[in-house]
Amino acid sequence: MNAKANKNQLTSIEPAYYEAVTEAIRKEAVKILKEDTVVGVVGYLPGRRKGTATPALVTSVEEAEKLVFSPACVNNLSVYLTKAKKGVLKQGKVGIVAKGCDMRALAGLMTESQLQREDLFIIGVVCPGVYGFGVERTGTLTEANIARKCRECIVHMPEGADVAAGTHAELADLTPEEAEEMARIEAMPQAERWAFWKEHFSRCIRCMACRQVCPFCYCEQCLCDKNRPQAVESSPRPAGNMAWHLVRAMHLAGRCGGCAECERVCPMDIPLNLLNRRMAKELKELYDYEAGLAPVEKGPLNQYKEDDDQSFIK
Amino acid sequence: MHDFEPKIVAFVCTWCTYAGADLAGTSRMQYPPNVRVLKFPCTGRIDPVFILRAFQKGADGVLVSGCHPGDCHYMAGNFHARRRFAAFRALLDFIGVDLNRLQFSWVSAAEGGKWVEVVTDLTERVRTMGPMPEFKELEHEELWSTFAEATAGKSTGLNITGDRSQVLNTPELKEAYDSIS
Q: Which residues does A183 contact at the CB level (< 8 Å), separation at least 6?
């Protein structure tokens, strides 16, 4: 966390850095697979198109030698332990490549007893950032193509990983676009805020990608799929959309680590991470809690203090 | 034209506030008949989605009321509810809902007078604010109205035909797209 003090004044992260990280990941993955420490490693393989990467579960040494890390490694892999590859943990210890934001998700899932630390071998990545949406993927990460969430990243160093790949690297002087946008919305008159979100939510097609990609939406049955009684209308109409996004934000309050995967996968470009950020900010102000920095016993909404603020209650 | 009569939905806990409201009734205290009381085992049982649902179904104001801190029949339900509603209020505020329409209170079984006061205050406040249109309008809106506006070229933030750069995020995709169209 002393990143600010010795902050490198970098304006771009060259491909060489990512190659070094790739090398370190491969070495570690091969080692733990050879030693039978783990049954598999969740990481990234090169995508079929140039400049992309795809999440993968590798189980052999040959495959592990193909693992990569690049700014195209945008996915939060922790979802592959709770939902996408649910059975894998039952077979034994699993290795996982984790950026700072993935680490936050893993810590949150450990907090909620969805994962056990001893079941995981975490290959942490010192991640300078990943690509944003709609940018030129040149192989070099610059201020022009870095993702919005990475501009305000506080977890470049993967705290609590078994090994860390890469050295400290961080772009200098990034404008905090997301914080500025949030401040802009907060400063709006109330009716304008409503209009802003109404417009965004009315675009929602309820594809539920935000739910499917979220490491914390692991409920066997989602409240929003229930229809007896129906809490949230399931068709993509404005009323149900508004309810769905409010329920989503509320259910992630105090849990979301800010990986912004929901926003990345949203086909309609709804700024979902702003809602998550707003809730995180509130819980930090009220209860001095930041989600996912380390596994804790209970989240802020699962505990209480007798002298919690109740100025809003009559 | 009738004067506006607000619809108030009150989510109350059965052990304290419901008994408090009962006391107000048996003591023959007068309070506005605008309030619809819904009884729950505990404020900890009241999900924020109930409040949303109430607004969507036509409530102009919502009251959530339960036991004073420390008096919960289930030991800590109201403490948990207090944190949850503090967070929920922040969310509603960020979305642009007027928090004056949402009231939280602690009313014990002995506080019939306080129940009357809370309900009267909220009802009168909402009466001066007028009906709550936001959520009700959403109920009657269809998504295609947005699309109709978008295709008519009005500003909705949705630009399907114009800027493709948001969708085509790699040079290869752009190239592929251009070769089709």
A: none
Any CB–CB contact under 8 A between A312 and chain B? yes
B34-to-B37, B61, B121, B124, B127 alpha-carbon distances in Å: 10, 10, 12, 10, 10
**A113 Cβ neighbours under 8 A, 6+ residues apart:** none
The pTM score is 0.86
SS3 content of chain A, % helix, strand, coil (to 5): 40, 10, 50
Q: Are residues B130 and B147 in the same domain?
A: no
The tally of domains found in chain B comes to 2
Residues B94-114, mean pLDDT to the nearest whole number? 95
**pLDDT for position B2:** 59
Averaged pLDDT for residues B113-141? 91
Say whether both B130 and B154 belong to one domain. Answer: no
How confident is the model over A262-272, as a mean pLDDT?
92
Note whether B91 contacts A250, CB cutoff 8 Å. Answer: yes
A243 close contact with B: CB closer than 8 A: yes
Position A292 scores a pLDDT of 86
pLDDT of the residue at B159:
45
Q: How many residues does chain A have?
A: 314
Which residue in the set A249, A269, A308 is minimally distant from B83, CB to CB?
A: A308
Q: Do A314 and B104 touch (CB under 8 A)?
A: yes
If asked whether residues B128 and B154 sit together in one domain, one would say no
The 10s digit of each residue's pLDDT in B132-168 is 888 888 887 765 545 555 545 544 444 444 444 455 5
The CA distance from A183 to A180, in Å, is 5
Q: How far apart are CA B109 and CA A134, in angstroms?
A: 59
| Backbone phi, psi, residue A203, to 5° | -80, -20
What are the residue boundaries of the structural domains of chain A, listed by start? 12-165, 177-300
- Helices B48-56 and B77-95 cross at an angle (nearest 10°) of 50
Q: Which domain range does residue B44 map to?
A: 8-138
- Of A107, A146, A103, A106, whose CA–CA distance to A128 is shortest? A146
The ipTM value here is 0.90
Same domain, B14 and B70: yes
Mean pLDDT of B102-107: 96
Asked whether A306 and B79 are in contact (CB, 8 A), the reply is yes
Q: Counting Cβ atoms within 10 Å, is residue A249 exposed (0-12), middle (13-18) or buried (19+)?
A: buried
